[in-house]
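Chapter summary example: a protein plus iron/sulfur cluster.
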Amino acid sequence: MTEKTSLVGLSIAELTSFVTALGEPAYRGKQIFAALHQRRLRSFEEMTDLPKALRDVLNEKATAATLIVESKYQSTDGTRRYLMKTHDDLPVETVFIPEERRDTICFSSQSGCPLQCTFCLTAQLGLLRSLTPGEIVEQIIIALNDVYGAGEKTPRGTNLVGMGAGEPFLNFDSLLNALRIMSEPQGLFIVPHRVTVSTAGIVPRIREVAQIPDRPNLAISLAAPTNELRDELMPINKKWPLEELLAACKEFEETLKPGEHFTFEYVMLAGKNDSEEHARQLANLLNRHELHAKVNLIPHNPAEPLPYQPSSADTVERFKLILESKGVHAYIRKPRGRDIFAACGQLAARRENNNFQAIKQSMVAL
Ligand code: SF4
């Protein structure tokens, strides 16, 4: 659609260069940055503190917003799920989760995903495209504006989790740029220690993140305690098997500073990875690598046509007790928004399916 520059994806320095190239004074860069990120304005018309002539030029050469909300679902527990679309008509899913002392926004780093985790609907879309830094940041702006109103102060802190569609570490540079933009005190001011990025296990990137000073918290999606089972559930394991992954995790854990978090995620699939033996294997694996990170047990969100069901509450509890009996800290994540297509990728998959049905119908009509 657009050759225009998306200003949401630019840092203050880049915005300053952009406006000075237009012949404007440098301070306009900071002013526009604050309008986009602190006041969360989504159009240049609303930036009434800019001269009209400048707003006209900006409209011609740039854009303040590229994502639009295609549909929104609100759960009885307050969770809101958004299906957004990019300027080139690709789906982006974002979730807002209110909690007592803070809000959490789960963002996507890619439209679709190239990895083939068998418990995930997004996998079935394949990779449509990696998102730009601006498209990552816009998801947060849109969710906050929807919940609190454009430009309104948010009453609680905002935590971010990069656990939506896509593998964040396969869109590494855009992710880091987006996190830098969001951490600006003159903008959203969501600092890296308020952000958790979840990876399926892109080992070289885990090692790289271990070297970055201002980095987000890290979560590793494990899903299985043996290579045999993990190869099946998360085929990326064939490239970086458990021993290699956990060695990188240990390197990362050794660099942890106070206040930083490192966790494992374990999705609980009934009859697949949730037996007492699996729990013992998982504990032994983590203990063998001398990893102290907590394990988050995540109830699976069932969705057609995924072949799995969630483990029962009793099974999850027993799994947790076995981990703890072997010295591994475990936590059971509360399911949220179960009544609104809670599975990651469900909205996008429905949309793609609807598009497919619409195409089929229009072909029948021809
Ligand atoms: S679970 Fe995450 S990494 Fe795996 S296919 Fe789904 S979106 Fe991609």
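Key point: The two ends are 27 Å apart (CA to CA).
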